[in-house]
Amino acid sequence: MENALSCTSSSSAPILHHPLSSASFTPQFSSQLRLSRLKRSNSVGQHRNRSLVISKACGPQGNGFPIIPTRIFIEEAIGAEYGEGFETFRPDGPLKIDVDFLNDRLQEGFLQRIRYAMKPDEAYGLIFSWDNVVADTRGLKLNAWKKLASEEGKEFPEDDEIQRLMLYAGAEHVLHKVLLWEKAENDMDRLKLRLSQLYYDNLLKLSKPVEGLKDWLDAVSTARIPCAVVSSLDRRSMIEALERMGLIKYFQAVVAEEDGMESIAHRFLSAAVKLDRKPSKCVVFEDDPRGITAAHNCTMMAVALIGAHPAYELQQADLAVASFTELSVINLRRLFAHKGSSFMDMQKQIIEKSPPRRKLTIDTIF
């Protein structure tokens, strides 16, 4: 949590102008393991044995312990129902961050206002949800459930409603209330861990983004609009997946599990800070009604991607599209076209009195 908002009071959170790289995210214990590998040994056999032990401890990639996502199959809270945020700690004490605080502190400076007056598109910030917006994770999750059912000797349900619960409800609720697969108390933890492992194995094979996303990001990059991607995945897995899909150069900020956000709305607020944009100037791209609600709780605009949910469940979004190919930069301007300082505020209706009728007189000249 502290990592995401270490400089909010100055209203100039750092923006990553260079492409993110997975090489910069090294595990905590990798340096110790490298040092132990450099020790001289009296025989070649001892050196090989030591290297073998180190490679086993580091996992299949050899540069850190295996990373298993633990917050994938969890139904997260929406958050910011009353505009509340979260706390970040500073040397002078804890600092409470909420929606109003960020909208007030992240005001544009004098030079920024001049620049945004000439190039208004740069004043916006785009926040993309990872699931089903950047990557098609529905197939990854269903494939993980199918493999788990095969390993446990269970039948995979074909009912659409049950599959929907498997995608969006928590794994514990599905295993305990829907599928009834666990038989003992320790079975629940074992099945949840194995499900996360299977999902991570599928994630390593992911190499294609959602259709039309790359062209949309090209247009947004040409307009110099900063972008962020948010997810409950760990940062390293996110960076590596973005590199495989060829999207790493388009995102200036990443909000991942290490940022310690407890809800969907908190993750959006953290992305706004990293982009150095007011929440009221950000646009969230989501496919879930819960994410759209979280965006509106943060005073952000929401663009819904129809697919995982039908259009009638996404009516609360400011704009709903079937694909990124339907979007253009002008759509972003139209989202904020009628939004001013007093837009949607309660105001009294002013009833103007009709002016008195003028009496017609005839001028007489004597």
From TrEMBL:
The gene is LOC113730270. Coiled coil: none annotated. It comes from Coffea arabica. This is 5-amino-6-(5-phospho-D-ribitylamino)uracil phosphatase, chloroplastic. It comes from the Eukaryota.
